[in-house]
Amino acid sequence: MRTIEWISISSADREGLEGLVRNGNTPQKVVWRARIVLLANDGLTAEAIVAAVGAF
What we know:
Shape: flat
Number of helices: 3
Low-confidence stretches: none
Helix content: 55-70%
Radius of gyration: 11 Å
Structural class: mainly alpha
Oligomer: single chain
Number of strands: 0
């Protein structure tokens, strides 16, 4: 499994990503990517992110 580098996003960016995830009209591939960024920002490992988003 690949290593994920720790990322940091601003609170405004986090709010925007959370809004995309909550919006029922956002395409699922965008929601999936937004959730990955949010989880990486929370410090989850690659394995935990894969488990959370159901990828692979």
